[in-house]
Amino acid sequence: MKKILLAAAVALIVIITGSVAMAAGTNTLTVNATVVGTCNFNTATSTISFTLDPNSSADGTATTVPTFWCTRGTTVTPTTDNGKNFSGGSKRMKSTANPTEFIPYSVTLTPSSTSGSGKSTPINLTVTGTVLNADYVSALAANDYTDTVVITIKP
Predict the structure, then answer these.
(1) How many whole angstroms separate alpha carbon 129 and alpha carbon 149?
(2) What pairs with residue 41 in β-bridges?
(3) Average pLDDT, the chain
(4) Partners of residue 69 on adjacent β-strands
(5) Mapping DSSP to helix (H, G, I), strand (E, B) and coil, where does residue 95 land?
(6) Residue 6: pLDDT above 70?
(7) How far apart are the first and last CA of the chain?
(8) What is residue 129's predicted lDDT score, i.e. its pLDDT?
(9) What gap in Å lies between CA 71 and CA 116, rounded to an integer?
(10) Cis before 66 (ω within 30)
(11) Distances (CA, A) of 114 to 32, 70, 110, 141, 150
């Protein structure tokens, strides 16, 4: 009888309080993220095309303006490699008909350093190539000359 009364008392307490009291454990979850500083060109290729006229006394210049973006706050300094025909401290375009003829040239990147504002804010990179008049005016055959240079925008 005592067991029945004890069970009835426990049942009455459970009904009155609505549940059985239990011990609870907790865990604090920390959530982290790292936004990587990155830069990417909006297009993969660009072209500079010179028209070099030996009748002119001016240096040859040509410009292209590729765009890129960088993660907000990421500082970048665009650079170029030396191209495929580098020699004697100069980038050079090689003749497509005569592989022993070259035209030296230089490339300037503007801005030389900048900071990104995010993917929706493209940055213009003005790429200016220059061929000195003295390097093409009388020494080379009429022909096409070419080189390939890689521009890097690494944060």
Answers:
(1) 11
(2) 68
(3) 90
(4) 40
(5) strand
(6) no
(7) 82
(8) 98
(9) 5
(10) no
(11) 28, 9, 9, 41, 19
